[in-house]
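Progress note, project year one: complex with flavin-adenine dinucleotide.
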Amino acid sequence: MADIETDYLVVGAGAAGLAFTDTLVAHSDAEVVIVDRRDEPGGHWNDVYPFVQLHAPSALYGVASLSLGSDQIVQDGSPDHGFYERATAGQLMDYFRAVSDDVLEASGRVRVLTSTDYLGGDSDRHRIASLADGEETTVRVRRRLVDATWFETDVPSTHTPSFEVDNDARFMPINDLVDLDDSASGYTVIGAGKTGIDACLWLMRNGVDPADIRWVRPRDAWHLGRESYQPLELLPAFIEGQASLLESAAEAEGVDDLFARLEACGQLRRVDPEVEPTMYRCATVSNHELDELRRIDDVVRLGRVRRIDPDQLVLDEGTVATEPGRVHVDCSARGLRATRPQPMFEPDRITIQQTRSCQPTFNSALIGFLEASDRDDEERNRLAPPNPYPSDAVDWIPNSLISYQAQTRWGEAPDVGEWLEGCRLNLAGGLRSHLQNPVVQGAVTRIITNTESAVDNLARLAEQR
Ligand SMILES: Cc1cc2nc3c(=O)[nH]c(=O)nc-3n(C[C@H](O)[C@H](O)[C@H](O)COP(=O)(O)OP(=O)(O)OC[C@H]3O[C@@H](n4cnc5c(N)ncnc54)[C@H](O)[C@@H]3O)c2cc1C
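Model obtained:
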């Protein structure tokens, strides 16, 4: 006899598991049990560095039924002036606690079991164990197991670096920067992704001379422009950006030409205009942040770090001198995991992955909506094709291709279209209220004109990668 019976067992109470469940229960009468090893809901946000902020607007993040923050445009003269607010780690943790308690548990149909490990199972019987007392419980699942750990996010405070560190070298995860006194002779930031960017910006904001920062960038990256990815009142700029992006994708004569066009229209940006990026991880930066980052001249491009000694940094392609007083800041955690794609919907299982590029909580909610809808799995999988998380620069091409192919199919499904228009997690949500704006009208015309040829051309370019 099972100890618990439920319709869905969701493994992972991170943003993905919560966003999926929120939309599923809002559109069905399903009962759900969510389990997570961590003590609190919110997934990797439990362990992030204290000064982290979302890099995209709060207005687009979290679960569909509860706003995160107050959807305000920052008007304080700070570098974020003119953009929608972005939540801090503390605000995110408070938010996910409220989602868990006030939305999901309060529905009477969802139980969120934290400090609980998922141990495995077969088609309808699964085992979970309390991490408090080790007690095992069997869960009989009437409908499906939901794997919301597919993109489990690795952060510096909990990962193990892939390189060795001598005991006499000064080394710390980015989290510990806030506790540092001013005794460092300099700083070496290891990692070119969003965390590395945050470390460099935080150091400069806190008075460190850019000349005292060395930045190890094994790969340079393409980034998304924050100015182009703003919702609600600022949606016209996003729609215009999409029109330029699709035009670039439709007209590009080759891969290099495509990236040149995307940069020229402001959709993709890089820190160093002299270096061709080979990485793309969906990080978002503003022009102000790029200007700040360009103040750092000491950039090491010798591959990945292999060892940190007190007097030298050993990398794949060479060594650079360091000194015992220099602090080496670990920003090398991989973030979202690169994974093999698999069907989202299978007979006993849902595996939450991304369909639209770079919008994890939107995708999770979409999967919840499709699951609640009255259609078969073949159709669900057609509307939600897996779209592997990007890593290399050229991954921008299939990522965008799959996103646009899926969006075209959504447009042909009236219930999905209606849901998209009203979903707060959908960047293009609320478009109808802007359709009287001549700028938006022009952009929409360009989008309609170019989508088909952009999709065809991206498919051709994807073959050339
Ligand atoms: C610094 C940073 C900033 C970011 N900013 C943004 C942003 O602005 N906008 C955006 O859209 N995205 C952003 N992201 C991406 C972000 O990672 C995702 O939005 C999202 O939070 C990932 O959620 P997740 O639920 O998939 O993964 P996680 O948060 O990793 O959650 C997975 C959960 O599964 C649990 N788990 C795994 N295995 C088991 C098991 N066997 N039993 C029980 N529990 C298990 C884990 O404990 C974990 O809590 C950012 C990421 C980082 C690192």
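The pocket of flavin-adenine dinucleotide is lined by residues 11-17, 35-38, 43-44, 48, 52, 54-56, 61, 117-118, 148-149, 151-153, 155, 194-195, 335-336, 359-361 (CB under 6 Å).
The CA atoms of residues 188 and 214 lie 5 Å apart.
No further modelling is planned for this target in the current period.
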